[in-house]
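thread from #wetlab-drylab

HS: before we spend reagent money on co-crystallization trials with nickel (II) ion, can we at least see a predicted complex? here's what I'd submit
DV: go for it
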Amino acid sequence: MVLYFPLLNIETLLLKNNKMSILEIVKEPDPILRKKSKEVENIDQSIQRLMDNMLETMYEAPGIGLAAPQVGILKRIIVIDLAKQDEPKKPLYIINPKILWKSEELISREEGCLSIPGYFAEVARPSKCKVQYLDYNGKPQITDADDLLSTCIQHEVDHCDGILFIDYLSKLKKDMILKKLIKTKKEKQIL
Ligand code: NI
């Protein structure tokens, strides 16, 4: 997920850890974004390395949330960091998330997505949720999320189920965005 205003993190741009690599972000309309991701069975070094690279990719984009299918890997893995530009980083690693509860109360927020660059739209989602997951070290965690974190978790869990935020928009608006994305993709292929 991305915020409406771009968060350019100078520190991220300057202090690149050599061990990490920037992954390619899959863009809509790529069929991989519509597939359901599988649960991670074993949290080993390769999974941790993937999460490190996803986080680095997300910081560079920049975005505040990224799910593994967005880098072409159909595993239920999410990274999130809601820290502001001038705050220390606060990465959140979420593996095999299960939303245990969602509030009836909804909140409408402007959402964007690194797989749908340049488009933002208001989406109404439950304002709070309770999520169970495994952390970076495979330890079970339960988090009560509200506000932006709640929106972000739901947006990223959707990615693991092949759902994009444009699916919540009217058909007219969704078709318009899709048409423009396809046009951009064709133009890129010509160049
Ligand atoms: Ni997204």
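DV: Residues 1, 113-115, 155, 159 surround nickel (II) ion (CB under 6 Å).
HS: ok that's useful, forwarding to the group
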